[in-house]
Structure to design on (217 residues):
């Protein structure tokens, strides 16, 4: 992990207030990044110990500062997961591919992120289903839509799946390729990631064709 600039904690060090006044946005971004990095480190190393005080201490910030940015530990955990998903969006946005090549590239990057962050990500789960969260505009669901949408639509186009089934196709993608299941496949099969990605793409395309068969005029 690339070392982050030292966080600035005005709550713990009053002298830091002058620094904060010169660049509050930079300080906020730096402190939040330090908290997210500490969250990932602790969730990977010792999930039971990943309390807000422990995360704040690892980030070099006061507990009061940590709570100012993230009022609850659940919000901090969710932000950590969203930060990983944002990396997928950035990658997918720059791809100049189409068809199955686009989907396999996005899935390959997601697989890479899951291997790196998955042991922490699997501890963060929503209590509601994907379609419910997407319908109400929940940020996590919308980011998944942004990251996976173009690739899913390319496979739908290839396999003749009607656009009206997009939400269900995306929900199926989210279920099949969630971090817990991908980690399980990676651990149990011990196959090369590129082979896993090809096999899972083939499986998902079969699921899409089955989904198309359920469309009733």
């Amino acid at each position: 992990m690339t070392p982050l600039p030292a966080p600035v904690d005005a709550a713990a060090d009053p002298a830091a207030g002058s620094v904060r006044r010169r660049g509050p946005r930079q300080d906020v971004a730096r402190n939040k990044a330090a908290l997210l990095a500490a969250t990932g480190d602790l969730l990977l190393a010792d999930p039971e110990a990943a309390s807000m005080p422990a995360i704040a201490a690892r980030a070099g910030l006061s507990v009061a500062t940590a709570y100012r940015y993230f009022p609850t530990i659940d919000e901090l955990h969710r932000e950590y997961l969203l930060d990983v998903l944002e990396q997928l969006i950035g990658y997918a946005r720059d791809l100049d591919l189409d068809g199955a090549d686009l989907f396999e590239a996005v899935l390959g990057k997601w697989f890479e992120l899951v291997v790196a962050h998955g042991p922490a990500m699997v501890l963060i789960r929503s209590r509601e289903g994907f379609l419910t969260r997407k319908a109400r505009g929940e940020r996590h669901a919308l980011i998944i839509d942004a990251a996976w949408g173009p690739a899913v639509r390319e496979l739908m186009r290839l396999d003749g799946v009607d656009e009206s089934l997009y939400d269900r196709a995306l929900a199926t993608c989210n279920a099949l390729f969630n971090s817990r299941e991908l980690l399980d496949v990676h651990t149990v099969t011990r196959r090369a990631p590129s082979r896993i990605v090809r096999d899972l793409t083939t499986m998902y395309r079969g699921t899409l064709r089955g989904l198309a068969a359920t469309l009733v005029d």
Summary: The CA atoms of residues 89 and 146 lie 7 Å apart. The longest helix spans residues 99-121. The radius of gyration is 20 Å. Confidence is low (pLDDT under 50) at residues 13-20.
